[in-house]
Design brief:
It is built from twelve helices and 17 strands. Strands 1, 2, 3, 4, 5, 6 and 17 form a seven-stranded mixed β-sheet that branches. By secondary structure, the protein is of the alpha/beta class.
Length: 476
């Protein structure tokens, strides 16, 4: 393994992106070819690092027929720049599939197709470096630059070379990680017991289908799709599936036209301007905006269950909401015993099962390890979370003249739209407008019919060219 080669400090990047998921891929696509400043012919120098070998988007959940919950217009760029070469429609054109798509009349595309589209962008777009694991980020006050240390990985994922890049700004897009509830962590980490997170469902599907009894935990879209897939694959009358959820119902996702306006820039601005205490109280109450099940999947589940009653009898499938897992343990060498509690009945029972699938969602990856060296500069809220301003920048000490932008790490400051694909292009454009001090992507001043709050929220201003200082007294 070699020492860290580095760009010369007088030739730094304008932007280094860490992580190449959909959000930083959107940022990279919109950053491609734009000028660094008004009247400056030099193009923005941006590079992105990702430790995986190639782009993959939730590969364990690319079930046949599973669709995105946002329209195809929520691709990487269209809602900021519909003339971009990186649109989903241009992807179809390069594949000679525009007419089939036109006649299919599909507003919501399949997840596998979105994954293929993003991979196409990642393979065509310059400046993306896969198999590069970022190890640390530091601020160098003498050079007024960030230092980014990375490890280049070989095909086996082993360290091959060390490197260092210098940059004026950072964009963190490290994404989320599967959440495993505490009672089930020991079992999920034991190789001999089939307890897996839904993120790995397709990799283990054949093994799971051989299990005599299967339990799915989680009431969101992933849990519903997995339950439906298992149900369709099991023989009638011998399904032997339990579907458990903590929520009080297997509830539909809010998908009304005005309800969807919670995923607009207008609502993000409104939410950001609320006091911290109001934001923290609001997010848990909005679970049905992003954790419910789409109506088509609920209907498909009911249709499948109903079909299995046509010749008499009921399917051997149990759907129980309002249940939490208190503890869990192993029975024998490979079975699992779940200790359950029903919150409304105040009753407890035990369930023995042969396999458990945890459709328990994802949590934001903690940034503390990566940003450990920046901690003295980082400003936090009363819950010790990083403060994020209205242009998606971490609030840092005024001595740091560069900016650290975040993507999908700001739900506590920007609301339920943070992980939503429909806001990807808008947020990327906002970041680039802020970074360049110009407006390479003019954005609409209003995006919702709903007026959130009694006082209108101002549109974020475009900062003057050059790094803007963020005052320590900023409240958000």
């Amino acid at each position: 393994m070699t020492d860290r080669p580095a760009l010369e400090p007088d030739q730094p990047h304008d932007l280094v992106g860490i992580g190449i998921g959909p959000f930083n891929l959107s940022l990279a696509a919109l950053a491609h070819g734009i000028p660094t400043a008004p009247g400056n012919p030099r193009k923005l120098a941006a590079t992105f690092y990702e430790q995986r070998r190639a782009f993959h988007w939730h590969p364990g959940l690319l079930l046949d027929g599973a669709s995105l919950q946002v329209p195809f217009l929520a691709d990487l760029v269209t809602l900021a720049d519909p003339a971009s070469p990186w649109t989903f429609l241009n992807y179809l054109r390069t594949r000679d599939r525009l007419f089939p798509f036109y006649f299919a009349e599909r507003f919501h595309i399949q997840r596998a197709e979105y994954d293929a589209y993003c991979r196409w962008v990642s393979e065509q777009l310059p400046g993306l470096h896969f198999s590069h694991q970022v190890d640390a980020v530091r601020w160098n006050p003498d050079r007024a630059l960030f230092e980014v240390d990375f490890t280049q990985l070989d095909t086996d994922g082993e360290a091959e070379a060390l490197g260092r890049a210098y940059t004026r700004h950072i964009a963190l897009g490290v994404g989320t990680e599967p959440f495993v509830p505490e009672p089930l962590k020991p079992l999920a980490e034991a190789a001999s017991v089939p307890v897996i997170h839904s993120a790995e469902y397709l990799q283990h599907r054949e093994q799971l289908l051989k299990a005599e009894h299967i339990t799915v935990i989680g009431s969101g879209q992933s849990g519903a799709e997995i339950f439906l897939d298992l149900l369709r694959a099991r023989p009638a009358g011998a399904e032997k599936i339990h579907w458990l959820a903590r929520t009080q119902a297997f509830a539909p996702m809010e998908y009304s036209k005005l309800g969807l306006e919670h995923f607009t820039p207008d609502y993000s601005r409104y939410f950001h301007a609320l006091p911290e205490s109001a934001r923290d109280e609001l997010v848990p109450r909005q679970w049905q905006l992003h954790k419910g099940i789409d109506a088509d999947t609920i209907a498909a589940i009911h249709d499948e269950l109903y079909r299995r009653t046509l010749h008499g009898g009921w399917p051997d499938a149990t759907l129980t909401p309002g249940v939490s897992v208190r503890t869990a343990g192993r029975v024998g060498t490979s079975r699992v015993e779940l200790h359950l509690e029903h919150t409304q009945q105040a009753t407890r029972t035990r369930l023995t099962t042969d396999a458990v699938i945890l459709a328990t969602g994802y949590r934001e990856r903690p940034l503390d390890g990566l940003l450990n060296s920046l901690d003295p500069y980082l400003r936090r809220d009363s819950s010790h979370r990083p403060r994020v301003d209205d242009q998606y920048r971490l609030v840092l000490d005024r001595t740091v003249t560069g900016h650290v932008y975040v993507q999908n790490a700001e739900r506590h400051t920007h609301g339920v739209g943070a992980p939503d694909l429909g806001l990807a292009a808008w947020r990327s454009a906002t970041i680039l407008n802020s970074l360049t001090g110009a407006e390479p992507y003019p954005l609409p001043k209003r995006t919702a019919f709903t007026t959130f709050g009694l006082t209108p929220q101002p549109t974020p201003r475009i900062p003057a060219q050059g790094p803007a200082l963020i005052p320590l007294t900023q409240s958000n």
